[in-house]
Amino acid sequence: MIESITIDSAEKCELINITSNINEIIGKNNVESGLVNISTRHTTSGIIINEDESGLKEDIVNVLEEIIPYKNYLHDRIDNNARSHLMATITTPTQTLPIVDGRLSLGTWQSIFFLELDGPRLNRKVTISILRD
């Protein structure tokens, strides 16, 4: 089973919690157990798992911006977003998690985030693929 969610971002670089969106898809399709793969369709974004705490989310953005600074990248000749592409290469475009008892199997502090690296953008797509047991 494959579905998608649409995300609108408001910032150049931000983490958007999509955990409830994924649990909603699992619930409406009555999936009790299996695997879910969450995948971004964009080369300037990522899917990460971490704690939904405002300071930590800001720290993640700050660290990415420090690791990959603004400079004159060759790709910027095309559409001026090389830095966003480079940031995406050190994150991951997908995450795969178990579904147990009809919900994502996450730790107490874990949430799933769409990591926007080239915003603000409208209509960002994330594919949710579920493999039932």
Shape: elongated
Q: What is CATH's topology name?
A: Jelly Rolls
The proportion of strand residues reads: 35-45%
Q: Work out the radius of gyration.
A: 16 Å
Spans of 5+ residues with little confidence (pLDDT < 50)?
Answer: none
- Going by helix content, strand content and strand pairing, the class is alpha+beta
The largest sheet has its strands arranged as 1-8-3-5-6
Oligomeric state of the chains present here: single chain
Any guess at the CATH architecture?
A: Sandwich
Mean pLDDT: 98
What's the total number of strands?
8
Distance between the termini: 12 Å
Elements, N to C (H/E): EEHEEHHHEEEE
CATH superfamily: YjbQ-like
Counting DSSP H or I runs of 4 or more residues, the number of helices is 4
Description:
With 133 residues, the protein is α+β, with helices and mostly antiparallel strands. It has 4 helices and 8 strands; from the N terminus they run ββαββαααββββ. It has a single domain, classed as YjbQ-like (Jelly Rolls, Sandwich). The relative contact order is 0.39. The mean pLDDT is 98.
Strand and helix map with partners:
Blueprint: E1 2-7, E2 14-17, H1 19-28, E3 33-40, E4 45-50, H2 54-67, H3 76-79, H4 82-89, E5 94-100, E6 103-104, E7 111-116, E8 124-132
List keywords for this structure.
36% strand; 3-stranded antiparallel sheet; alpha+beta; single chain; 5-stranded antiparallel sheet; elongated; 27% helix; 133 residues; Jelly Rolls
What is the compact description of this entry?
With 133 residues, this protein is of the alpha+beta class. It is built from four helices and eight strands.
